[in-house]
Amino acid sequence: MANLATVGDLDLPKHKVSAGVPAILPKSPRIEAPEHPVSHTHTTMEQALDKGVKAGIAKLTAGLSPIALAAAYADWTLHLASAPGKQLQLFEKAGKKAWRLASYAGFCATHPDTSKTCIDPLPQDRRFRSQNWQKWPYNLFYQSFLLNQQWWHNATTGVEGVTQQHENVVTFAGRQLLDVFSPSNYVLTNPDVVEQTIREGGTNLLRGWQNYIDDASRLYAKQKPVGAEAFEVGRNMATSPGKVVFRNRLIELIQYAPTTDKVRPEPILIVPAWIMKYYILDLSEHNSLVRFLTGQGFTVFMISWKNPDQGDRDLGMDDYLSLGVMDALDAATAITDSETVHAIGYCLGGTLLSIAASAMAREGDKRMGTITLLAAQTDFTEPGELQLFINDSQLAFLEDMMWDQGYLDTTQMAGAFQLLRSNDLIWSRIVHDYLMGERTPMIDLMAWNADATRMPYRMHSEYLRRLFLNNDLAEGRYHVGDRPVTISDIRAPVFMVGTERDHVAPWRSVYKFNLLCDTDVTFVLTSGGHNAGIVSEPGHPHRHYRIATLAKDAPYFDPDRWMAQVDPVDGSWWPALSDWLGKHSGAAATPPPLAPKDKGYPPLCDAPGTYVYQE
After folding, report:
1. Within 10 A of 3 (CB to CB), how many other CB atoms are there?
2. What is the pLDDT of residue 125?
3. How far apart are CA 68 and CA 56, in angstroms?
């Protein structure tokens, strides 16, 4: 394995603090984002009228702003109209592509069984991989489509003067519209569907129609997808034994029962994202990160977030800090009598954990002995295609929709994420379920994904504006209390995980933490996507990862150079995390009591608690 600074783990001294730890936040602070107040109070009649109109439109457009889209297209069309050279180039390209297609058609007429192509799909495009697409006339169908797709990419990119944001939006929207007309989406132009229809005498289409009616009925009734009923929280998911030891209006804190005779003195506190139910990290018995860590001799605590409703509209980022991370940290340290914890944050939970760690470092609170960030961003200048939905116009539109209902609904979030991978999540499913008449067997990860949560109005607006749009955390403008915090104050060693195919938190964006911090960072790049790459238990087939540690005083390595020089390792990255945590832990000792009454944390109920069942 390649070595950048130190490959593997660091043997760094653990931080020690005195018994008195300064508090960084009051129990329920109200920290406003001064440039963009979002509270629904003191709204004038005129403002309410404006917000109500936009909220009504947003319900028809799934939360997407038609004004933002129109602005992007106006920018592109006006600049393209004033660029005769670009127009001439596009005209030439159209002529060349038409000639290529005509030549290819002539070649196919004399070589009907050819596998030759005039254009190849992109590596991630799996629509035309079947050998049936090489048969006439289907090869002409998909080759014509790909040439057309390539021409539109040329047309929407490289137009001088168009802002990068608008170019990205126009390119993305054009790709979405073209994908509607892909020959793979229709019965008569998809050779695999034609073959199956002939073979089954059309019964596949009948099954597909039944599948469609079933799905539409479930969607209308707000029921879970087919097969999800086989996966039940507390029965075969989220089954690690434990107790809820703390509850407030925002979280339940679960302490898991030890599974080893001795445990490390420092507990693990896991902060999951509140955009999802926590139990992705305690999925099934065979792929539960909680079970893995308790099996390695750690005491594990997990935050389970409340699923907010309209009454929680004014919960903000400051509440998620104080009622979430800080209250859980107080409980975990009190129960275990430990001066430090191993803090783990996933996705948005990792971003929140970074903010909390920065604020604690500012105040001299050293209770975070180590920090592990799983697919979590701290610099949002390159957040991937999610950036397409983040600008002032779009956020104003989204805020008005949330203002009307008090939260961002689960279906509104799901639509945006599906658009980012429309070929995989929308069109391929339509072909598979409705044209081929088949069903993909439900698995635990898919069932969890269908158990979505809402986002409070104020918190989500603050998160999108202060982090995504303004990048306040990375640039030193994010306030906790009355002062800004900065990642560079963190001194605890950090273990970071990015995933190769992450469309939510691209790994190169996650890697930017190295530009902000002043501590030792062990970075792991694992195979898989945003969820499957994290749920990567030992024994999972076809998994690999790269790992290397960059010391705080070592020269910076850009992500591409890092990837080129660090060799992949077969298997799961979970044991690497366990080894790293072990080297930053004390000697194993008797486990702490489970839900000790004498310390003020009596058992409230069994795991998985009550908040996880809220719909």
Report:
1. 11
2. 87
3. 16
Q: Residue 24 corresponds to which tokens in the numbers above?
A: 């960084």
Q: Say how far residue 410 (Cα) sits from the centre of its chain.
A: 14
Q: Give the span between the Cα atoms of 575 and 426, in whole angstroms.
A: 35
Say how far apart CA 547 and CA 228 lie, in whole Å: 35
Q: How far is CA 34 from CA 88, 90, 179, 251, 316, in A?
A: 49, 47, 42, 27, 13
- Residue 336, number of CB atoms within 10 A of its CB: 24
Both tokens of 128, joined, read 């035309």
Quick: pLDDT tens for 490-516: 999 999 999 999 988 999 999 999 999
Q: What residue ranges do the domains of the chain occupy? A: 60-185, 243-386+482-613
Could you tell me the sign of the dihedral formed by the alpha carbons of 48, 51, 56, 59, in that order? negative
Q: Which two tokens stand for residue 262?
A: 């001795």
Q: Which among 108, 347, 517, 605 is annotated as catalytic?
A: 347
Q: Which residues pair with 288 in a beta bridge?
A: 282
- Given a contact cutoff of 8 angstroms between Cβ atoms, the answer to whether 463 and 402 are in contact is no
Contact 570, 29 (CB under 8 A): no
Model-wide pTM > 0.85: yes
Report the 10 Å Cβ neighbour count for 64.
20
Of the candidates 240, 318, 315, 314, which has an alpha carbon nearest to the alpha carbon of residue 283? 240
CB proximity list for 121: less than 8 A, separation 6 or greater: 127, 128, 129, 146
What class is the 243-386+482-613 domain?
alpha beta
Q: How many helices (H) and strands (E) does the chain have?
A: 21, 15
- pLDDT bin (cut points 50, 70, 90) of residue 417 is low
Mean pLDDT of 352-358: 97
Whether 517 is catalytic: no
CA distance 406 to 424: 31
Least confident stretch, 61-75, 492-506, 538-552: 61-75
